[in-house]
Sequence to fold (430 residues):
Amino acid sequence: MSRHAIRIEGGRAVLAARVARDAHTEPDTTELERLAEAAGYDPVGSVTQRRREDPGTWLGRGKAETLTERAAETDADAVLVDGGLTPGQYANLLDRLPAGTELVDRYRLVLGIFAAGSADRRAALQVEAATLRYELPRLRQATEESLLNEATEKGSPVLDAERRVDRIETKLAALADEAAERREERRAAGLGLVALAGYTNAGKTTLLHRLADGMSVEEAGGTAGHDDAPDSTPVADDLFVTLETTTRRGSLGGRPAVFTDTVGLLDGVPHDLVESFGTTLSAVSGADVPVLVVDASDPVDRVREKVRVSLDALDVADPVVALNKVDALEPGALDARRDVVADLLDGGEGVPVSARDGTGVDRLRRAVAARLPTDRATFRLPNAPETESFLAWVRERGACEVTYEGEWVAAEFVARPAVVAEARGRAPTE
Ligand SMILES: Nc1nc2c(ncn2[C@@H]2O[C@H](COP(=O)(O)OP(=O)(O)OP(=O)(O)O)[C@@H](O)[C@H]2O)c(=O)[nH]1
Ligand SMILES: [Mg+2]
Fold:
């Protein structure tokens, strides 16, 4: 096989994990196992170590030998490393492994999951570019200087890859502003913009199904975007089930809204890795209300860790926090999770919910609705046909309560400030 292939191979895998000697925990391979499975590997063994990172071989030399032995004993196809390897560490470890063993770090593993799951050409292109960017320094390291110089003149794998990355990036740049434009169109149409974000497997997609109506924005027509997937958004107990953002229509407090489901975040993976992370981050920072979905059924330390990773990745100071999966919590266990949120979000409050059974979802809706940009106006309108068409316009863009009083119609309108301003200009007069 070529180790520069976009798709990783899958097969039997030995896992390697390490924490610093002064860490409070033992190395834990649970998350790496789940990533491995999502990428098509079957974990058959592991080697763990508590010590600082070795600059040459990531694990200490002795443990690197153990890793080699373990790979040989288990007849492994691959070694998966729970961290990022520098090009040098990659080359050194690969040298030590039995010939033909694939070496994959956490970063590369996530790229592999995205490569396998990229449904459309654009997504496939961006994963290819990210993989090439990742592979290039490793390819350079593996190619001798002299050979490299000679080959530069005639074309080489390195040069070909560099050219390909340039071409792909030019194409992707042209598409980058589209999502931002669509957000502006939706705002102009009066829609509230809500984005669900959080660590992978937190329950974002399940919560989207609870909050939004069934249809994607595209199916619903109107201010449709063009890359909103019209198909169902899958939920599963795997990591990275959602690989691109999708947007669905719904309403909040009688106001029209769109809910965007985003790609899960993960510790130790740079979130400029693939464009779908970029789209995720901009969907969240460009939303009116970012909702941080947290798996509250994790142990408290994991909850803290995942919230911290999510806040670091997302450029939002003050999201609405949904403490999800409370149906799976022991009674009394919620308080410690709330404390984590209060601590990391400067007094912020988590809303306990169960996306699975619907508990707390109405309270979450109210918390989100309260954060939408809002203005209100009261109209006294003539009871006439032009008032009916005005009211139809208004009802598409906000919440409106109407009372008929003989020759007059009273309307209470709540919507985005710009929409309320426009309504004032459109309201029929006597
Ligand atoms: N017990 C319980 N399980 C839940 C709840 N919400 C989601 N889950 C489960 O958690 C798993 C992940 O749910 P998803 O909705 O796919 O999570 P996600 O955040 O979209 O995950 P990615 O797209 O992979 O990042 C699934 O097995 C869900 O059934 C909940 O409220 N309670
Ligand atoms: Mg999802």
In short: Residues 1-5, 218-230 have pLDDT under 50 and may be disordered. The domain at 1-176 is CATH 3.40.50.11060 (Rossmann fold).
